[in-house]
Amino acid sequence: xxxxxxxxxxxxxxxxxxxxxxxxxxxxxxxxxxxxxxxxxxxxxxxxxxxxxxxxxxxxxxxxxxxxxxxxxxxxxxxxxxxxxxxxxxxxxxxxxxxxxxxxxxxxxxxxxxxxxxxxxxxxxxxxxxxxxxxxxxxxxxxxxxxxxxxxxxxxxxxxxxxxxxxxxxxxxxxxxxx
Length: 179
Fold this sequence. Notes:
Blueprint: E1 6-10, H1 15-26, E2 30-37, H2 44-54, E3 58-63, H3 65-78, H4 90-109, E4 113-115, H5 129-132, H6 138-147, E5 161-164, E6 169-172, H7 174-177
Parallel strand pairs: 1-2, 1-4, 2-3
Antiparallel strand pairs: 5-6
């Protein structure tokens, strides 16, 4: 199968992005994985190895923590930006910082596309019916990972994901959102 082009995937090494990486390869794309260091406790070398093992053509690891603090966190604190008067918006603030470097890498590498794994139940990746019809939620992704030998840090009994950066940590999963 000839390649449909290169895609730069904002990759974390978690359930969503690991399955998306393999799925994009199945769909005929060359995948370039991109990990952004925004202050999370992450073994970036292990994540690099995992992305390459899953089929990434290249892996970029970029430290954008300084930009994240100076251009996103400080302005948010200065403006008292909170969701519902208590949530620090760390995840929301990190996304444009991550995406900016992702687009730079895509331009540098001549990639046609960028993609992310910001929980496939929303609009990722790309609003492609082939993806969201195939994966209705995290259980479908866990089953796909099992079928394809993708090592993942979650199980049906412990399905939550964690989003950590210099501003905060958030946790997500159906059982946490709908107790």
